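Summarise what follows for lecture notes:
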Amino acid sequence: METGLIKDDQMTGNSYYNSTTHARFGRLGGPGAWCGKKVPSILHVDLTVLHYICAVATQGFDDQGYFATEYRLVLKTDGQETLYADSNGIRVSNCSL
């Protein structure tokens, strides 16, 4: 995502605080940070085709003290959701959000 291969319109969130915390800023090393306002906050990245996800990294918004304390990685195809891992690296399956 950091390289820009994933376009801004492929990244959506269920909420954000202001214009500098919009989903398009959910990239490492970017000019802002995505910060959801709702609980749970959901950042959706449409990869358009099936990919192997080899790693997940998170980064806080240092100026504001915002950072992720936990997350879930979910694959959704054909309306079916499968939770693959949580922030502790625990593999889980057949979970709905």
User: Anything to note?
Assistant: The chain has no helices and four strands.
